[in-house]
Amino acid sequence: MRRMIVAAVALVVLALAGRDPAGAAQPVAMIDLDGAITPVTARLLTAAIERAQSERAQALIVRLNTPGGLERSMRTMAQTILNSEIPVIVYVAPTGARAASAGVFITMAAHVAAMAPATNIGAAHPVAIGGETGREMSKKIANDAAAFARSLAAERGRNVEWAEKAVHASVSVTEREAVKLKVVDLVAESVPDLLAKVDGRTVKTTRGPVTLTTRDAAVKLIEVRFRDRFLALITDPNIAYILMMVGMLGIFFELQTPGAILPGVIGGISLILAFFAFQSLPINWAGVLLILFGISLLIAEIKIASHGILTIGGIVAMVLGSFMLYEAPEMGFRVSWTVILPTVGAMAGLVVWAVSAGVRAMMRSPVTGPAGMIGRVAVARSALGPEGQVQVDGEIWRAVSEGEAIPAGEKVRVTAVDGLTLKVSRAGDRP
User: Fold this and answer.
1) CA distances (Å), origin 306, targets 300, 302, 310, 349
2) pLDDT tens string 255-295
3) pLDDT digits (tens, 9 = 90+) for 75-84
4) For domain 2-225, which architecture applies?
5) Which of 91, 180, 364, 373 is at a distance of 20 to 30 A from 380, taking alpha carbons?
6) Choosing from 54, 73, 139, 140, which is the catalytic residue?
7) How many CB atoms lie within 10 A of CB 195?
């Protein structure tokens, strides 16, 4: 019994020290978070921590490169890191990466914060969703963000004064300046260099102090599942915008040509995916309404002779709606010009072409039924004096001549249809 107790205590000590019973360092998990901070990013971080814990990793490295993102998602990620049972190391990398805006809070929440060469951190002043807000409201938002930044810095023993300046004054520093100011803990050339430099550090987690033994530890990259990659793709502002436009175009074509099915199916799926993405994005419904109004003006141009005024108005409304679609363009949620202009141009061209083709089809003369017979040329099979028979496209019809008698074999023109009887005249006469 005494030996069993000693062995159990030894296993616990080895686990807390970050080594397995064979003496090798426990592996370190790593995930790449590149891009804007959204609800999908927050879900990826939570899943990565849970997976790292289930695989008995001694720590999780978050390789971060972000221009910022949504405040709600940032707070969720910071809280997840603060409540993690394993150490979370935020590594701003690769070279040239940044941790701006929301990335500052996530980096400061980490148990260990590191940066690669030629990276920067800062500019954390909050941008109010919806554009300009009142002075007092902007002040409240900034003060709330500053208080959160100070609490994170104080919790991790980092520069509280700089954290507040990053919010109120939007200051930003390089990796060397960040270490000097105690904003981050160290600069690492690479992941192996990072593991060597954090080896032996003791950090505080929710389960108590943990000493890292990461030198020469194996790194297991957490692959993002297809489902999460797909969700991250469609929540990209540009992709969500294109999906919405394709969805509207598909529904429009289905309404124009009922029974086509394919445009309706594609349009419905695209719209559903776009609305799902809008749940994770700061959507401005005034932008959506402007786009719908622009499409309505393009359709009205075909019905009303406005000499191009409605077309110009429709294109302007769609462009303005595209720029207003997202309410936080400063945080990486702005639709690119290279996406807006081709999309609006293609949308306007297709709508005008489709509606024009429909109008032209409605104005064409009928080609079937009694109305389609008028004006057709036939051949008299028997003398019409005035009644007889004529042949039209291989069909024999009873005919009545409206003028003089017409001998057999002469060409005649159909002028009217009375039931199953055609009224005809000589082909040389205009109906």
Assistant:
1) 9, 9, 6, 17
2) 767 777 888 899 899 989 988 888 777 778 888 888 888 88
3) 999 999 999 9
4) Alpha-Beta Complex (3.90)
5) 364
6) 140
7) 23
Common-topology check for domains 2-225 and 369-426: no
Domain 369-426: which CATH class?
mainly beta
Asked if 253 contacts 245 with a C-beta cutoff of 8 angstroms, the reply is no
Q: Are 357 and 382 in contact (CB under 8 A)?
A: no
- Tens-place pLDDT, residues 123-164: 888 765 444 455 777 788 889 999 999 999 999 999 999 999
**pTM for the predicted model, two decimal places:** 0.67
Which residues are registered as beta bridge partners of 172? 122
Which has the higher per-residue pLDDT, 34 or 353? Answer: 34
Catalytic-residue membership of 182: no
Catalytic annotation present for 140: yes
Catalytic choice (73, 84, 101, 322) = 101
Residues in CB range of 60: below 8 A, 6 or more apart? 28, 29, 30, 31, 48, 49, 52, 84, 86, 87, 88, 89
